Amino acid sequence: MDDLNDEDWQRLDDAIGQVWQPEEPDMQAADIYGVNRRFENHVRREMHNEEDDIPPRNPRDLPKARRPYRDPLQNQIHSLGPMNIACSQCDALHWKFEKLSASSVRNPKFGNCCLQGQIQLPPLRVPPRYLKDMLCGIANQSKTFRKNIRQYNAAFAFTSLGVKIDHAITNAPGPYSFRIYGELHHHSGALLPEENQPERYAQIYIHNDADQVNLRLANNPQLDPTVMAELQAMIHETHPYVALYRSAYQIMAETPPEQRQNVKVLL
What we know:
It is a single chain. The protein is mainly α. It folds into three domains: 6-47; 81-122, no CATH class; 129-262, no CATH class. 40% of the residues lie in helices and 7% in strands. The chain has helices at residues 6-17, 25-53, 129-136, 142-147, 149-155, 167-170, 209-219, 225-238, 240-254; strands at 85-86, 93-94, 160-165, 180-187. The longest helix is centred in the first third of the chain and has 29 residues, at 25-53.
């Protein structure tokens, strides 16, 4: 308002005082319009000057989540490098930065795998050739096998999982989480199913080879029949419980019905 001179104020007063006088409507409207425009321009200039006086905010004063993102410089990126340093005791792979401070670069030693040989575990058994090819991606059906590996494992299981599952967690959205109440154990049922119930788990192993494949496919129709037959042949050759369950079935078949409740299988 300071840049309005006396002439502008006078013209504004005259325009307001004559706004109801109809003899010069065009002059009154023009005077009011001109004064209003100058007043608006003055206010805009004052607001612009005030904004210019405000110092810009330092981005470091903002929370990290609200700061503008900038790609780090190449020399600021920290890389652990390849994980290709093997422990001399257990052959576990490590990053070179994981070595003990008391060891050298040429002879690194590690303590977070086997405590430098204090913990010794037996080596893993070599899997059967067919299973190894399926796991390593060599076989033709290895892709679908690894995709459905949990279903294949359940199809050939001898026992079921005996737990009390917390379904509020397992059915919740997000990453899969398995939570149980109490202890975990394996449940082995009777060798023969109840009336009008399908064979499951170890009950399937008492049948001949062709019937076993058909029974497993009936319980798991989404699985590949060829893979199912190959896995079954592999398990029959390598698993000691297959012959045991068949022997138990033969013993029960030869036992009178009134004595079958006393037949036990010790594994």
